Amino acid sequence: MAGGFSTPKKDKAVKVSSGQPVKAGQILIRGLSTYKAGQNVKGLNTMFALRPGKVYFSRKKTSHGKFRTFVNVLAQALPAKK
After folding, report:
1. H/E element holding 64?
2. Per-residue confidence of the chain (82 residues) as pLDDT tens digits?
3. Considering 66, 67, 71, 80, which has the largest number of Cβ atoms within 10 A of its Cβ?
């Protein structure tokens, strides 16, 4: 650390916005536990896409009355083989 001071990590953030296209395996969120994995997304603090598609966020109310934000990937249709 520069000068002996502890500095916070700068890589903890949401890496993609809603509506952006992503590839399979691409990191969506790193180091944040406030988001939960939804459809076609896996991981706890570092979430990544399982399929290529577009990212969207959704909010749902739990049985305990709290709202959770889920990160989802709407999978794109695979091209038909000839």
Report:
1. none
2. 555 677 766 788 899 999 999 999 999 999 988 999 999 999 998 999 999 999 999 999 989 999 999 999 999 877 767 7
3. 71
Whole-model pTM over 0.85: no
**Segments forming the whole domain that contains residue 30:** 15-75
Q: Tell me the C-alpha distance between 37 and 27, whole Å.
A: 12
The domain tally of the chain equals 1
How far from 24 is each of 3, 34, 38, 52, 57, CA to CA, in Å?
40, 22, 15, 5, 17
| Amino acid of residue 61 | K
In a domain, 50, yes or no: yes
Does 80 map to a domain? no
Quick check: is 4 in a domain?
Answer: no
